[in-house]
Amino acid sequence: xxxxxxxxxxxxxxxxxxxxxxxxxxxxxxxxxxxxxxxxxxxxxxxxxxxxxxxxxxxxxxxxxxxxxxxxxxxxxxxxxxxxxxxxxxxxxxxxxxxxxxxxxxxxxxxxxxxxxxxxxxxxxxxxxxxxxxxxxxxxxxxxxxxxxxxxxxxxxxxxxxxxxxxxxxxxxxxxxxxxxxxxxxxxxxxxxxxxxxxxxxxxxxxxxxxxxxxxxxxxxxxxxxxxxxxxxxxxxxxxxxxxxxxxxxxxxxxxxxxxxxxxxxxxxxxxxxxxxxxxxxxxxxxxxxxxxxxxxxxxxxxxxxxxxxxxxxxxxxxxxxxxxxxxxxxxxxxxxxxxxxxxxxxxxxxxxxxxxxxxx
Length: 361
Hints:
Blueprint: E1 6-15, E2 18-28, E3 33-37, H1 44-52, E4 59-64, E5 67-71, E6 76-77, E7 85-88, H2 100-104, H3 106-110, H4 115-128, H5 144-157, E8 162-166, H6 174-191, E9 194-199, H7 202-208, E10 211-216, E11 219-224, H8 226-231, H9 236-241, E12 246-249, E13 251-254, E14 261-267, E15 270-275, E16 284-288, E17 294-297, E18 306-315, E19 320-326, E20 329-335, E21 346-350, E22 357-360
Parallel strand pairs: 3-9, 3-10, 7-8, 8-9
Antiparallel strand pairs: 1-2, 1-4, 4-5, 5-6, 10-11, 12-16, 13-14, 14-15, 16-22, 17-21, 18-19, 18-21, 19-20
Helix pairs in contact: 4-5
């Protein structure tokens, strides 16, 4: 494998007996947007801070553009300000006693570059985030969205090798978050900078990333393109994290003539066919998304359909969630609100084999 623009090799971060990051390795190519995705406490922010030099690894090596910036075995650790990186924090880290210009120019100041030399880059960065007329405004007179733009401008003003973004949109309201997500994606496409982005929001990760690394318990659970992660999560944890709420324990059997598929007994008399692209050993489940469940009322039975009773329904605006009990199992289906799917109604449900996936621990 050729060397990446950023190489993280076997990084571990420990706090006494607690292992926050455990043997994490990955590569990032120049111009790539990589997202570290996962729930709180999975190690994604600690990994980002280790790359930035804000955390000291207990093992491993980090190389940026061919130059080692951290090598625990060699006792080599370059300080944060000498790694050529920029970082956008979750809290934005805007200095309240400074103007917008002074905040954006701060990276130049800590590197010993004067205000006059920094001015062209600062003004360009402010223009890129639509804050050209705000240079002299006190930071205390900024809205949340404007503070986020200032933090972005500060990150891109200095010609950083990599921009690190730690949950930069999490403090914004839902509508502004969507707007700023689109603006951030557009900005990165125009400037072409390399980015490592941390988030717990899968929608954010899918919208912005070239590649996603999902973390769990300080380790990498799975990595791939957004479409690969969404279409084929390998484990029960990842499938559940991505919203695949129908996860049923299954006893697997081969499917004749289809080496990529199996039959899974999920309850007495209920067998589902599912994709099994990895063919690994271990306890298995079959997972499928509620949106992929097709529900018909009694009398419209299809081949392979499973009989059930609508146990309850939840109205969620333009759609509804229908919970269907079939013997020992209960599944969830998403559909438009339907009067014929009242609670207690007998129905038949099916899921296409291509929409079912074998999951393991």
